[in-house]
Structures are given as C-alpha cells and as structure tokens.
Amino acid sequence: MKRAPSSGSAAVADALQRLKPPAHVEPDPRAWQRMLSGRRLDLLDPSALDVEIEDIAHGLARVARWNGQTVGAHIYSVAQHCLLVEALARLKAPRLDRSRRLAVLLHDAPEYVIGDMISPFKTVIGDAYKAVERRLLAAIHRRFGLPPSPPELTHLIKSADRQAACLEATRLAGFAPAEARRFFGRPPRIAPSMERDYLKPWPAETAQARYLERFKKLSGD
Fold first, then answer.
1. How far apart are alpha carbons 84 and 92 in whole angstroms?
2. Which of 68, 123, 169, 171 has its CA 20 to 30 A from that of 76?
3. What span, in angstroms and rounded, lies between the C-alpha atoms of 206 and 195?
4. Phi, psi (deg, nearest 5) at residue 206
C-alpha cells in the first residue's frame, strides 16, 4: 500500500514545478530583411522609404545569373545583366528617354532581396514568387519616382531581356545556339566591343560601381 506524500514532499514538488521554464512560444515568422544601409525591408508590405540604391547595387552585384552555372573567374551578376539589357534596349529604341531607361535598368531590382530565381523553378512554384516580385518592384518605382511601366515599355524590357538571355546562354552558360534560339529567340547583332565588355563577367566591385554610375546618370543625381 502506497503512502500518501508528506506535506513537506508536496511542498518541494510544488516548488520544483514553479521553477520549470515556461513552454516555448514560437516567434512570428520573419518576413523582412535587414540591409547593409540599416534599412529593414518587409517583403509582405515593402515601403519605398526602405529602398536604397546602394543596397540594390550591392545586392545585385553579388547575385548570380544562371544559378552560378557560367564560365569565368567571377559570377555573371544580375547587375551586369541589367546593364546589358539597358544597353540592348537603347539599341532597339534610341529615342528612349532617361526615365524609361532607368526603368529598364531597374527591371530586375527586386532580386537584390529575393535572388535570381531561375525560370524552371519559377514554373514550379507558380504565382507566389511573381506576387512578391511585383510588390517589390512597385515600391522601387515609387522610391525613384517612376510610374508603372506602360505596355510598350514592358514589351521592350521583355524583348531586350530575352536577347540578353540568348547571348548569356551561348557565351557563358553552355547552351548550343539552336537550343538558345528555341528558348530565347534570335540573338541580337552587337558590336564586338560590346560583347567583350558586357559578356565577360566582372568582379562584384566593378559590377556594383558601374550599376551605381549608370543609375546616377539616368536619374540625374
């Protein structure tokens, strides 16, 4: 027959129970990223006030196109890609004003936060990625005083982007010309000097500096 615990034992057990740490409470999931500028950008509700061009240039210069599967001593960065796309857009539309050229330069700017998601993976995850991307791009446009891109500018950006992808695919990412044409269309004709410059991967510091320099020229800063 078990004996009932003494009052002293019960008191000790009660004291030990009170000493137990409280049950763990999971914090709310974090949906923001802290930038080197000190800004904290919320991906669910991005504010234009938290967007800084220095953060964009720094990030894009260190995000690899093609998941890093490119030749060369350095990654082929999104910053360098954006500069190539803007140069191709100028060839296609020489009279494009500075504001619209700036929109072209910034077309992949959300990737400084969310990275460069390769097209096959975008297909896998569906519209969730696109929704985040659209919110970030809208905040970036507001930050730099750009209106939403009209359809003709959107078409120009997509066309120049595909041309850049075709060049990158064959020069850097191991695609055969016929394979690249099937996915990206016909490659543009560019001067050898332009190819030597834009299709040789730059060090991150060079990509960052050139992106910032082009932004300042187009924005009038």
1. 12
2. 123
3. 17
4. -70, -45
Per-residue pLDDT of the chain (221 residues; tens, 9 = 90+): 555 555 566 666 666 566 666 666 556 678 888 999 999 999 889 999 999 999 999 999 999 999 999 999 999 999 999 999 999 999 999 999 999 999 999 999 999 999 887 777 767 776 777 888 999 999 999 999 999 999 999 999 999 999 999 999 999 999 999 999 999 999 999 999 999 999 999 999 999 999 999 999 999 87
Nearest to 84 by CA among 110, 107, 67: 107
Q: What is the dihedral of CA 42, 43, 49, 52, to 10 degrees?
A: 110
3-state secondary structure of 41: strand
CB 201 within 8 A of CB 70: yes
Structure tokens at 109: 């700017």
